[in-house]
Amino acid sequence: MAAYTPMIQQYLKIKAEYQDAFLFFRLGDFYEMFFEDALNASQELEITLTSREGGSEERIPMCGIPYHAAAGYIDTLIEKGYKVAICEQTEDPKQAVGVVRREVVQLITPGTKMEGKGLDEKENNFIASLTDFADGTFGLAYNDLSTGENKVTILEGSFDDLYNELSILGAKEVVIAQDFPADWQQKMKERGVAALSYEDSVDADVQFESVLKLLQEQKQRAAVSKLLHYLFRTQKRSLDHLQPAQPYETNSYMKIDYYSKRNLELTETIRSKGKKGSLLWLLDETKTAMGGRLLKQWIERPLIDKKTIEKRQLLVETLKNHYFERQDLRERLKEVYDLERLAGRVAFGNVNARDLIQLKRSLQQIPTIREIVSSLDVAALAEKLDPCMDVTDLLEQSLIENPPLSVKEGNIIQDGYHPDLDTYRDASRNGKTWIAQLERQERDRTGIKSLKIGYNRVFGYYIEVTRANLHLLEEGRYERKQTLTNAERYITPELKEKEALILQAEEKSIGLEYDLFQELREQVKSHIPRLQALAKAVSELDVLQCFATISEERHYVKPLFSNERKIVLKDGRHPVVEKVLQTQEYVPNDCDMDSEREMLLITGPNMSGKSTYMRQIALTSILAQIGCFVSASEAVLPIFDKVFTRIGAADDLISGQSTFMVEMLEAKNAIVNATENSLILFDEIGRGTSTYDGMALAQAIIEHIHEKIGAKTLFSTHYHELTVLADELACLQNVHVSAVEQNGNVVFLHKIKEGSADKSYGIHVAQLAELPTSLINRANAILTELEKDRVTVNADSTSPLAQTEYTEQKSLHQNVETAAAASDSQLSFFGETANPDRRAPASKEKKVLDELKGLEVLELTPLDALNLLYKLQKKLK
To answer: N or C: fewer beta carbons within 10 Å in the chain?
Structure first.
């Protein structure tokens, strides 16, 4: 290292402390990167890679970006999951002895972004920390630095529980200790759980007491303290906007695991991973950014406390019944900016005058919003809407209405706010008036109409005269200051004196304005808790009006909650599909379930709507438990503690799991964790393996849920043989999605009816998919041949597996008999004519066939069947 120049040595020393980040090293007007950082940044940012001498024999790789354009480059790196350490000059270069002192002033990470294009206004940007305790539990704390929100919970030692919580949060970064269990670290990386950062566990710190004051348990305090240490260590500044950490229990909300959240497309669709087509997309009629964030949180954590749900319902009903007031409210909410993130930027120190004007305009809406809410007799909401009039007045008196973006160039503070500023401004403005008067006087004195007085930063004020008019100047009065190609610039004693006064006044004015703005920011900072409380009330009001608007526009009904675990849905619709269909008519369906009807076994053709029907039951329950009205004409529902779904097929290629393995894992998750108060949706369980395996698993799962769990369950299947279970299982009922054939084409009615379906219409679906006509015809021919061999199932047999085995063995028996009597022109399975030279069976073969005819196949054990087959084979040799 000694071979490098002092500046490069300084760089390497600082870089050693930030090995996992790009070091933006300030040199003049550029941030420079060297060595490995330069090589990587040139590729990631697509900027030119150069080199420079650094004292060693080899040139050092180097690349740089302009200081004023750094924000865009930082956003790009953060979006790719990298960290950026901002290293600034921390002393005046004029006073420095040797290399200018530099220090990292902030570490920007995926979880600590405060602004920029990667920060979605309607989504939180959470950073989480995990702390493992000796008793096998884990502390999960999380924070949104942009809003100051903090929460914490203690989880049992299950990776699935931990992963579900992290997936709900969508945390961009997870902070763990270096000794965090290695196998769990590996699992998190395999599942793509955010960026991992490291911070050793610490004891609760006195400096964090304002954040920890609501936490009684030591484990909760320890979990939050670790996260706070990481935030303060990386941000290196005051974080006065951090709110008191709120403890919560995961079992206080409806549990929706990762798989179910994905399958139900609550916040994003499975295919595009986008918002459009999700439940969030349907519901989002919020008018504020903070309302949008709260809506997402409510969807991901439905309530299970009946009183709290009904309290929300009452507010939604009130807003729904007052159309004009609600419309006025929506217009006012549109003018409210993001109070949470504005407060965060005030505390963080990166707020500008335009941000504070947004804050003022937002606060100016609150009195009217409060008046509207009060007129609806909703006192609980109105009381939370603190107008913060003192803050509004302060901003009204201090800032001009349209300030510039920069706070260091002046022209942001109003006249009359500070006497010294008024004095400087008066001197500056009068001086400029004097300059204009001087210009007119000089023109009159000299007769030079083109004479002008100008200014630049290098030479100050000057009198400019073209060369053609130089002879008109009075000798001895003008002092030459600069020579141009076609003109000369001069200064006079009077102009020089006035210049000093004007420039001094402007310089002092700009400096004082900056100081006043800093003081103003500190004054606003003292009101951050009030602003955050107001933001919370406004966001809640925004979500409630959103529910009311959706409920009225889409003709939703207020659901009632049953203590007897009943489901009564009349004219139920899938809320998202209904919206997507738009002008097309959605076919509604009823759902009736009670203590004698706990499970519905749903059969019917592909594409007929089985999955849609199942999903709509789950989405209706989620809508009800977040406090919204639901898509039906009548609704009575239980309060579900958990929802489990297994819908659709998906490989988990990263962890090497097949479609069937994912299917079994999702089924296991439901079976192990469901209670009688849960809702289970299973779609086509067992289809990923052989017929016997699949049917056996499906039947066993149905029986287990029926006998051991008792949860409300919707189970769709193509195994029609399973429908006989309704005769054995008291609480299982068959329903089917109806379809009819017209002129050889299938018409899906999308209507749920009692009883089981009679056929699957699989070839009709293939025809709708426009498979080749020749292929469809061949499939129909094969199906006809197969159906010839089917036999009526013994009505006394109640086991689906036994029926299937009986059918297939009986079919084989009849095929042998048919083959013996077939003509020479018999059609084979593949449509080819038999060998024309084929002769009738010999007498010994006929004896074997006769013996086969007399067998009672179902009475044979597998071993008896094998022995008999061996004997028959010997007779034919």
So the answer is: C
Indicate the number of domains in the chain.
6
CA angle 273, 276, 277 (to 5 degrees): 90
What does the pLDDT read at residue 811?
A: 43
Dihedral sign computed on CA atoms, order 701, 704, 706, 709: negative
Which class for 862: exposed (0-12), middle (13-18), buried (19 or more C-beta within 10 A)?
Answer: exposed
Range 515-543 average pLDDT: 96
What contacts 127, CB < 8 A, 6 or more positions away? 109, 110, 111, 112, 142, 143, 144, 145, 171, 172, 173, 174, 175, 227, 230, 231
Q: C-alpha distances in angstroms, 532 versus 149, 294, 391, 526?
A: 10, 13, 13, 12
The chain-wide mean pLDDT, for the chain, equals: 87
Q: Does the pLDDT of residue 2 top 70, yes or no?
A: no
Q: Can you tell me the mean pLDDT for 45-49?
A: 95
Q: Quick check: is 120 in a domain?
A: no
808: Cα separation from own chain's centroid: 50
Domain contains 811: yes
Residue 403 lies in a domain: no
Query: Does 72 share its domain with 99?
Result: yes
Locus of tokens 């203690």: 154
Residues 735 and 751 grouped into a single domain: yes
Q: Tokens for 140?
A: 């999960």
| Two structure tokens written together for 125 | 């940007």
Q: Model pTM?
A: 0.83
Please state the length of the chain. 877
Q: Does residue 735 contact residue 602 with C-beta atoms inside 8 Å?
A: yes
Domain span including residue 30:
6-108
Q: SS3 breakdown of the chain: % helix, strand, coil, rounded to 5?
A: 45, 20, 35
Q: Are strands 102-108 and 84-89 parallel, antiparallel or unpaired?
A: antiparallel
For residue 828, pLDDT beyond 70: no
